[in-house]
């Protein structure tokens, strides 16, 4: 079976298992998702959702957060880990949104990459979830499961996995497909233990084969 055929079958299987695919970070504005996804590095989405409540209550706009001191941001986001670097990136990102983009999050991938602390994963998340454009978010679940189910072969680098998936996943399916892989990686095929008897993708799994 060719990888593209395999990919289409996996897309449909995951659709049936997880019909309501969505980002698990809570947000109601694009800039808030930018902040949350930066905080989510090496931290759970559930913890981020709790921490940002206090951050956004104190600084409810791009302008307000841009004016905040890095030290104060760090105090609030400390529970997410890597506080100093995350606080610096958030502060610099909000300042750039204010000064360069007139307090609007750009809907262009390359422009998003210019923002401090925004890499390809974050930019793809914004493009897919906020702007409804084709996107592939290669987080740890996506990388691990794409290898396990034969969509890529022994590739661990996020950028290279993304490049390979663009070749076989229909553009309009990419964003939701990655969200579904996250759900599957958290609930069924976890990094610590695979609950194979509950898996809808057994027929594609290298562990089973």
Q: Mind explaining what this structure looks like?
A:
The protein is built from 11 helices and no strands. Helix content is 57%, strand content 0%. Helix 2 crosses helix 3 (45-58) and helix 2 runs antiparallel to helix 6. It has 209 residues and is mainly α. The two termini are 14 Å apart. It folds into 2 domains: 3-22 and 135-204, Helix-hairpin-Helix base-excision DNA repair enzymes (C-terminal) (Endonuclease Iii, domain 2); 30-130, Hypothetical protein, domain 2 (Endonuclease III, domain 1). The mean pLDDT is 96.
What secondary-structure arrangement, pairings included, does this model have?
Elements: H1 3-17, H2 30-39, H3 45-58, H4 62-67, H5 70-77, H6 83-99, H7 109-113, H8 120-130, H9 140-148, H10 158-168, H11 174-187
Helix pairs in contact: 2-3, 2-6, 2-8, 5-6, 9-11
């Amino acid at each position: 079976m060719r990888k593209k055929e395999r990919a289409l079958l996996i897309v449909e299987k995951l659709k049936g298992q997880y019909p309501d695919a969505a980002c698990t970070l809570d947000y109601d504005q694009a800039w808030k998702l930018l902040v949350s996804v930066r905080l989510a590095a090496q931290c759970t989405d559930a913890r981020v959702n709790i921490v940002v409540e206090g951050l956004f209550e104190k600084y409810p706009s791009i302008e307000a957060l841009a004016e905040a001191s890095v030290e104060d941001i760090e105090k609030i986001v400390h529970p997410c880990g890597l506080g100093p670097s995350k606080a610096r990136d958030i502060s610099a990102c909000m300042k750039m949104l204010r000064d360069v983009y007139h307090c609007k999050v750009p809907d262009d991938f390359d422009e998003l990459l210019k923002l401090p602390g925004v890499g390809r994963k974050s930019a793809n998340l914004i493009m897919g979830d906020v702007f409804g454009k084709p996107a592939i978010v290669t987080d740890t679940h996506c990388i691990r499961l794409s290898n396990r189910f034969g969509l890529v072969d022994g590739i661990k680098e996020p950028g290279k996995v993304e490049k390979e998936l663009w070749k076989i996943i229909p553009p309009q399916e990419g964003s939701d497909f990655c969200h579904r892989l996250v759900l599957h990686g958290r609930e069924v095929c976890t990094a610590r233990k695979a609950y194979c008897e509950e898996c809808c993708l057994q027929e594609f799994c290298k562990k089973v084969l």
